Amino acid sequence: MDDIFGLSIGTIMTVLIILLAVCLAAVAFVAIRKPVVFRMGMRNIPRRRAQTVLIVIGLMLSTLIIAAAFGTGDTIDRSVTSVALEGLGEVDELIVASQDENNEGSVESSLNDTFDAAVLGQIDVGLGDDPNVDGILPVLLETLPVISEVSGQSEPTTYLVGVDPARLDQFGGLRTPGGDPIDLAATAIDEVVISQSLAEALDAEVGMTLTTFYAQQPIQLRVAAIAGDSPLAGNFDTNTPGWVVPLERLQAATGQEGRLTFIAISNEGGVEGGLALSDTVTARAREVVAGMPLGVDPYKDSLVDFANEFSSLFTSLFLVLGLFSVAVGILLIVLIFTMLAAERRPEMGMARAVGQRRGQLIQQFVAEGSGYALLAGLVGAALGVLATYAIALSLGALIGDELDIDPYVSPRSLVVAYCLGVVITFIAVVGSSWKISRLNVVAAIRDLPDVATAKRSKRTFIWAGLLLLVGGTLAYAGQTSDTAQAFLFYAGMSLMPFGVALLLRYFGVPSRPVLSVVGVYLLVFWFLPAS
Q1: Which residue, among 83, 82, 68, 81, has the nearest Cα to 389 in the 3D structure?
Q2: Same domain, yes or no, for 446 and 520?
Q3: Residue 308 belongs to a domain
Q4: Distances in whole angstroms, Cα of residue 390 to Cα of each of 367, 394, 446, 481
Q5: What does the radius of gyration of the chain's CA atoms come to, in whole angstroms?
Q6: In which band, very low, low, confident or very high, does the pLDDT at 19 lie, cut at 50, 70 and 90?
Q7: How far is CA 280 from CA 93, 94, 136, 284, in A?
């Protein structure tokens, strides 16, 4: 997976590493300049082990959710990419019939179109000496039904392809599922090589006779061998099985002498390494076919890009759904440190009474919280990996017949999840430390509640105005059916209630019932159907 929310994962990782370094530098500053304060904060971690375990479990929630989301995205990306790479083998680009003025093409829209095979010579001349190209293969394709009268099974749609046996070695050759080579040129005129998926669909074996129909006439062919699924055996998608015969034989049988459906190109570098050359070879191939009714489809690169986009979408969905859990995790962090402060209130009051400043108290809690955050990040990332495997197993049980799910978490995603989880926890710890450091020394020593005096704050009024202004602007800008603009509308309509709540709070209305109404409004608003 290369990007998320339109941003490069590499860029996100770099930014998060810098933010984590800033957080650790702040803690290191306290450790160097205020070693006593630092030790006072850190001493509670090994002393109260049961409490430390409970706090780490509470703080790890955000990291776990983020790691599971990124791990699921990596799993989907790897699984779909593996299908593309294993399914296409060394076929990287396809030259197809096309009327596009820029010589762009799509194999999906041109499977029923053919073009003059004479262009093969020009393409051999134009690409044959290109160091980035190690194979060129002409292909004719026919969509046919097939029946096995022995097993009683049938397939209404299959791809029968004709390929040049002399060029197959440039693409790794036609091989059995076990890896043994198949000599397509040695097959008899009434023999055919079928793919593994077609053999499974028809319960077919070597030597069995299959019946197909062309021009409403039955044609019987004997299975000479069973090949592994690949474009060389006629498999161009996971839903349509294929079979293969020599090119000239299919051209003669269908009356399409001198016609081709597409020309396959193999890049230097093998199955996966050739992807890096796809843009270069595609551009060169389009130069070669310029002026011809042909187009170039970077087929493998497009499938891999689709895998990346699909996995990014999946990760985005998981992250958006997980934002509620992350928000709960942040509230849990605040609650944990508030409870810690309540437990140690007399201790904090005595420390303040003998000369500890408020800033030093904040630094003490930040030092302690950073220790918890680093431990919680490790635990959350590890449990996120386990959650990824559990999700992968569930997906495999649901869609395993269509897509082989391969659990995988990239090191880059683990770094991003760990850094993001620790940074979120650190920021929440700093905010909590600032809040709990505000105490009445006498009341804290006597373990009495602080007496709060309600008063109006201009900041409350200013924030209310800003939220109403920003929310109203976003809602007005998002009044369109476009997805990106619709997000602005939803964001604006979610911000304005908080502005109203702050405004009511400024005028003395109790906060709890107002914010409860805002929460109910947000639930109703976000769960309303889109149309």
Answers
A1: 68
A2: no
A3: no
A4: 35, 6, 50, 37
A5: 33
A6: very high
A7: 11, 14, 16, 6
**pLDDT band with cut points at 50, 70 and 90 for residue 507:** confident
Confidence band of 453 (pLDDT split at 50, 70, 90)? low
Listed in sequence order, the DSSP H helices in 400-510 are: 411-436, 441-445, 458-477, 483-506
Amino acid at 444: A
| SS3 state of residue 209 | strand
Statement to judge: residues 410 and 466 lie in one domain: no
pLDDT exceeds 60 at position 13: yes
| pLDDT tens track for 278-309 | 889 999 999 988 888 899 989 888 888 887 77
Give the pLDDT of residue 245.
Answer: 92
pLDDT band at 18; cut points 50, 70, 90: very high
Same domain, 46 and 142: no
What own/partner pairs with CB < 8 Å and gap ≥ 24 does 395-403 have? 395/75, 402/238, 403/79, 403/80, 403/83, 403/238
Average pLDDT, integer, range 1-28: 83
227 with 359, same domain: the answer is no
State both tokens at 36.
């006593």
Residues 278, 162, single domain; the answer is yes
In a domain, 26, yes or no: yes
> Phi and psi at residue 467, in whole multiples of 5°?
-65, -40
The answer on 235 and 105 residing in a single domain is yes
Q: Are 385 and 377 in contact (CB under 8 A)?
A: no
The pLDDT of residue 482 is: 56
Residues 402-418 have pLDDT tens digits of 667 888 888 888 998 89
Measure the CA–CA gap between 225 and 121, rounded to whole angstroms.
31
Would residue 305 count as lying in a domain? no
End-to-end C-alpha distance for the chain, whole angstroms: 32
The residue segments making up the domain with residue 343 are 3-84+333-453
Distance in angstroms (rounded) separating the CA atoms of residues 371 and 412: 23
Does 460 lie in the same domain as 447?
no
In angstroms, the CA 157 to CA 232 distance is 17
254 and 107 within one domain: yes
Please state the domain count of the chain.
3
pLDDT value of residue 103: 84
Task: Tally Cβ neighbours within 10 Å of residue 358.
Answer: 12
Domain boundary among 280, 297, 314: 297
Q: Which residues of 408-417 are buried (b: 16+ CB within 10 A; e: fewer)?
A: bbbebbbbbb
Mean pLDDT comparison of 173-182, 328-337, 347-356, highest-scoring range: 173-182
Give the residue from 59, 527, 515, 72 showing the smallest Cα distance to 328.
Answer: 59
The answer to whether 422 touches 430, Cβ cutoff 8 Å, is no
The predicted structure's pLDDT at residue 160: 92
Instruction: Compute φ and ψ for 463, nearest 5 degrees.
Output: -65, -35
Is 302 a domain residue? no
Residues in the chain: 531
Residue that is last in its domain, among 437, 453, 469:
453
Summarize the confidence of residues 110-131 as an average pLDDT: 87
